[in-house]
Structures are given as C-alpha cells and as structure tokens.
C-alpha cells in the first residue's frame, strides 16, 4: 500500500520566504491601487454632489470664490527646508470663511485635478494639513482659489514618493506644453504648462500673482526622501476651454487601472504551491531495480 505523500518542511519554509518577499515587493503597488480607488470614489461622490446642486447655487459659489480672490493681497507661502509641505503666511483668522468657500463636503473637497500626461486624477481639498496631503492635493490657503480669473495665481500642493500613494510622484516628468484640468463646481478650467523649475524652499517669488495672467502652480518636494528643494510646475489658462475637456467633465476616473499586482501575486502563490507539491513527492524506484541484490523495501512499499 502506498504511503501518504509528505510535505517537505524545508520546501514550506522556502515557499513562505518567497511569499513574504513577493508581498513586500508588491505592497507599494497594491497600496497605491487601493488609495487611487478611494480617491476615485471620492471624486465620483464630489461629481454627484455638485450635480445635485442647482445651476444658480453653483454660479453663486464660483462668484463667492472670485470675490475672495479679489480680496487677497499678495498671498505667498513659506517652505521650510526638509519639510514635505508648504505653510501659508496668511493669517487664517483674517479669512475665517475660507473653509466655507467651494464647500462640497465635510471632508473639505473643493475641486478635481486631472493631469493626463502622468495619469493623475485627484481630489483637491482645502488647506495643506498632513491629513489632507495623505489623501489628495491640498490648496495652499492665502493663494487664489482655483476658479480662474485675471491676475489670479492658485497654488496646489501634493506629496511624492509615498509608499501608499502616487499623488505627485511623477510631477517631474511634466514638460512645457503639457496640460492639466481643474473641475470646480461645474466649471472646467484647462491650463497649459509654461514653466517648470526646481527652487530652494525660500524662493517663492514665482508663486505671486502676475498682473493680467490666470495661473495655477503645482508644487511638490524633491529629491525624494530628502525634500531640500521644490518642483514648481506653472500653467496658464487656455481660453476658450478645449471642447474635449468640457465634454470629459464629470466622467468616472480612469484610475486605478487593472490590478496587475494581484495577478502577479496570484501567479507567485500558484508557482510556490506547485513547488511545495513537487518537493513533497518521494522518488519512485523502477520495478526492475527492486529485484536487484541489496534493494530493501520499506514497510508499506508495493
């Protein structure tokens, strides 16, 4: 009678080590995928919330934001070396109504940012707190709200190099002529990149409004993990807004894509399972060899 097949202890240990290694390598991809899924859900909720508002309400919110922008006087920002986020030098108490402007939900979501060239589709929130920048893009208080307008300059900031989210990780890949789009309370604003630069933390001159220009600057830190400098990507408004951007407004985000990390992990599990199974097989001895002198059978061998 044939004995039950035994599993090799060594093969199990090797398989567990391989499984742990695969999980470690795929964790950033998996975490980023789930974060993008959550961000896409928030964008869908934002789109539904704005769509439920009357046209009059949406226009009123935009007008209030424009009045806020006109009241700003030279708002700039301070970037401390080694820090991953900017801080506004504008007294928050002087703009106590800031959080109520473009108020789409209780999470502080105000708009949506799309950057096709690097496959970015992110929610924009009020402020640049740690919690905000862990989940999306932050609007730097003290700079113009992202509703456009002559002589306005909005600043949007995001992290890069996080293990759990891509956010602005690939902002350095953008080049002159690339575009990005902001959807805010039913309005669509498209900006063409006119300037990209790396600056020291205290170099904020380019973040100030420029007379007659409608600008938005995207900000993140560099180099990864060191954060000694800042990447500034500035776009100028395109008027009229491209028809394609208007027609694509409100569409479900294209990110995250298919979870190839899950397919890879599943493949690793299958391969390791096959390895453990094969390693647990006992070598078979041809029948003719059993008849040779000196061959001894064990109890249970047939």
From TrEMBL:
One of its GO terms (molecular function) is hydrolase activity. The active site is at 159 (proton donor/acceptor), 221 (acyl-thioester intermediate). Keywords: Hydrolase, Membrane, Transmembrane, Transmembrane helix. InterPro entries: Sortase (IPR005754), Sortase_C (IPR042002), Sortase_dom-sf (IPR023365). It holds the Pfam family Sortase. Signal peptide: none annotated. The chain crosses the membrane at residues 258-278. Gene3D superfamilies: Sortase. This is Class C sortase. It comes from Microbacterium aurum.
């Amino acid at each position: 009678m044939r004995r039950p097949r035994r599993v090799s202890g060594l093969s199990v240990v090797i398989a567990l080590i391989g499984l742990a290694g695969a999980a470690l390598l795929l964790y950033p991809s998996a975490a980023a995928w789930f974060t993008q899924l959550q961000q896409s859900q928030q964008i869908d909720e934002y789109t539904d919330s704005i769509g439920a508002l009357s046209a009059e309400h949406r226009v009123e919110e935009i007008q209030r934001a424009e009045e806020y922008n006109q009241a700003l006087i030279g708002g700039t920002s301070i970037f401390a070396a080694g820090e991953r986020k900017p801080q506004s030098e504008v007294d928050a108490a002087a703009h106590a109504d800031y959080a109520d402007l473009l108020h789409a939900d209780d999470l502080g979501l105000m708009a949506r940012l799309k950057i096709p060239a690097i496959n970015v589709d992110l929610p924009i929130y009020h402020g640049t707190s740690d919690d905000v920048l862990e989940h999306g893009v932050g609007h730097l208080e003290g700079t113009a709200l992202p509703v456009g307008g002559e002589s306005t300059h909005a600043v949007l900031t995001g992290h890069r190099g996080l293990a759990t989210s891509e956010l602005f990780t690939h902002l350095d890949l953008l080049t002159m002529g690339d575009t990005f789009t902001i959807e805010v309370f039913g309005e669509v604003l498209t900006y063409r990149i006119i300037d990209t630069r790396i600056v020291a933390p205290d170099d904020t001159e380019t973040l100030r409004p420029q007379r007659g220009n409608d600008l938005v600057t995207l900000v993140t830190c560099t180099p990864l993990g060191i954060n000694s400098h800042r990447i500034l990507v500035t776009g100028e408004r395109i008027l009229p807004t491209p028809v394609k951007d208007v027609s694509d407004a409100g569409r479900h985000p294209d990110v995250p894509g298919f979870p190839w990390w899950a397919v890879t992990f599943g493949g690793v599990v299958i391969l390791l399972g096959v390895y453990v199974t094969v390693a647990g097989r006992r070598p078979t001895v041809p029948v003719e060899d059993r008849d040779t002198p000196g061959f001894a059978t064990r109890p249970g061998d047939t």
